[in-house]
Amino acid sequence: MRTPGQDEELALGLLLTEGLIRTAADTTEVASRGDTEDEGVNELDVELAAGLKPDWSQYERNLTTQS
């Protein structure tokens, strides 16, 4: 859960803390999906820099969600 706003920074921070990137320079683009005012944007596409190929098999979701 999150309050809308600064979603790009939130996504990059998550990728950083999960170890998928080391700096923002490890990404080339962060783009919003969707553009309707009524629905808002709840998805982002993050493009990794050329040559950056994480070993996806080592990553598991380590987040706790409470509400």
Q: What do these coordinates show?
A:
It contains one helix and two strands, in the order H-E-E. The model has no long low-confidence stretch (mean pLDDT 81). Helices cover 16% and strands 19% of the residues. The chain is an alpha+beta fold and 67 residues long. Strands 1-2 form a two-stranded antiparallel sheet. The protein has one helix spanning 7-17, and strands at 27-33, 43-48. The radius of gyration is 13 Å and the shape is globular.
Task: Tell me the layout of helices and strands.
Elements: H1 7-17, E1 27-33, E2 43-48
Antiparallel strand pairs: 1-2
State the helix count.
1
| Count of strand segments | 2
Strand order of the largest sheet: 1-2
- In terms of per-residue confidence, which ranges show pLDDT below 50 for 5 or more consecutive residues? none
Broad structural category: alpha+beta
Q: Biggest β-sheet: count, sense, barrel?
A: 2 strands, antiparallel
Q: Strand share of the residues?
A: 15-25%
Shape: globular
Summarize this entry quickly.
With 67 residues, the chain is α+β, with helices and mostly antiparallel strands. The chain has one helix at 7-17, and strands at 27-33, 43-48.
From the structure above, extract its key features.
67 residues, two-stranded antiparallel sheet, 2 strands, globular
